[in-house]
Amino acid sequence: MSLAPKTFRFALDGGVGTITFDRPERLNSLTFDSYIELGEFFVEVERHPEVRSLVITGAGRGFCSGGDRHDIIARLFERDMQGLVDFTRITGALIRNIRRVRRPVIAAVNGVAVGAGAVIALACDVRIAADDARFGFIFPKVGLCGADMGAAYLLPRVVGLGRASELLFMGELVDAQEAYRIGLANRVVPAAEVVATATQWAKKLADGPAFAHTMTKQMLEAEHTMGLEEAIEAEAQAQAICMQHPDFREAYDAIVAKRAPKFKGAP
């Protein structure tokens, strides 16, 4: 696979890669093909050091409305148990690959992000929400477990167990201001500025020490299951590795010379 996907748009500018869901007439709902291609994309991007940060957004009025009710939901009734498990493993692989990718990933959440769309936004490292954005883990509304695609693992880490339990049991929509209040959104901006703001953040990260960002993301993910002593030791080793990287010397030289650093390290 190349960085020229068929089921969504991708553009690269100044180290920032922008993924745009591009089915605006269907609120950017996902198909079987888009789940697979998007999951594979986050593996493929590891081979492209020119991509130093990523933004995910949606065309038109919505971020992503989850699995398409006709192209996916209706067709699931034709599958046996093994076929259903095969499908749910594909959707979960997408989230796993977003978390594993060694790049900062920013969601520019415009409009509605529900079902799988909400979990994709949740899997990103940072969420910039438009003031008209709405989040919904709506699986219970259609008779499904609220824990889907890793939501029950990720959501308590972001908003706490009590809030996560409420969102996953009730399946209610949360507006942008409430999402910000509970920590689900990092920032809320006017709808017209959401992609630009996310891109600004991503550009700042792309211009920064990519190797250090890679280590930061890796440690955030790994330390979740560690005890304090183990985490401190893991961070000591990670920091020592970063101290041997040329970007560390470049930062020091730039401070001494009173100039902006020029980081060249690959992610």
Number of self-contained structural domains: 2
Helix fraction by DSSP (H/I, runs of at least 4): 40-55%
CATH topology of the largest domain: 2-enoyl-CoA Hydratase, Chain A, domain 1
Instruction: Tell me the number of strands.
Output: 10
Helices and strands: which structural class?
alpha/beta
Major β-sheet strand ordering: 1-2-3-5-7-10
Largest sheet: 6 strands, mixed
Distance between the termini: 20 Å
Output the number of helix runs. Answer: 11
Order of helices and strands: EEHEEHHEEHEEHHEHEHHHH
Let me know the average pLDDT: 95
Uncertain ranges:
none
Strand percent estimate: 15-25%
Radius of gyration (Å): 19 Å
Instruction: Give the overall shape.
Output: globular
Q: Return the CATH architecture of the largest domain.
A: Alpha-Beta Complex
What would CATH call the homologous superfamily of the largest domain?
2-enoyl-CoA Hydratase, Chain A, domain 1
CATH class assignment of the largest domain: Alpha Beta
How would you describe this structure to a colleague?
The protein has 2 domains: 8-206, 2-enoyl-CoA Hydratase, Chain A, domain 1 (Alpha-Beta Complex); 209-257. The chain contains 11 helices and 10 strands. It has helices at residues 32-44, 69-76, 81-100, 116-123, 151-159, 161-170, 176-182, 194-207, 210-222, 228-243, 246-257; strands spanning 8-13, 16-21, 53-58, 62-64, 105-109, 112-114, 126-130, 134-136, 174-175, 187-189. α1 (32-44) links the parallel β2 (16-21) and β3. The chain is globular. The two termini are 20 Å apart. The model has no long low-confidence stretch (mean pLDDT 95).
